Amino acid sequence: MDKFTEELGIKPTETYKKGDPYIRGKRKSTRFETVWEIEQARLNYFMMMMKINRYLNP
Q1: One Pfam family from the UniProt entry (predicted)?
Q2: Which residues pair with 36 in a beta bridge?
């Protein structure tokens, strides 16, 4: 996930990895998936898609 962020040069709004602990209310649990999230309003959508495409198809 860190390499992906570095390659894109975009700071995500939120990230977490599968297995990371978290607390919801009073209950302790672990993440069941990995997430790399960015709010579209913060970045031009077209530019973001170009960067992701370059990362996935070098």
Answers
A1: DUF4279
A2: 15
pLDDT tens-digit series, residues 3-53: 878 877 878 888 999 999 999 899 999 999 999 888 766 567 777 788 888
Nearest-CA neighbor of 42 among 17, 14, 16?
14
Domain coordinates in residue numbering, the chain: 2-56
pLDDT of residue 33: 93
Residues in the chain: 58
Q: Cβ of 45: how many Cβ atoms within 10 Å? A: 9
Rounded CA gap, 53 and 58, in Å?
A: 8
Closest CA to 37 of 56, 11, 55, 19: 11
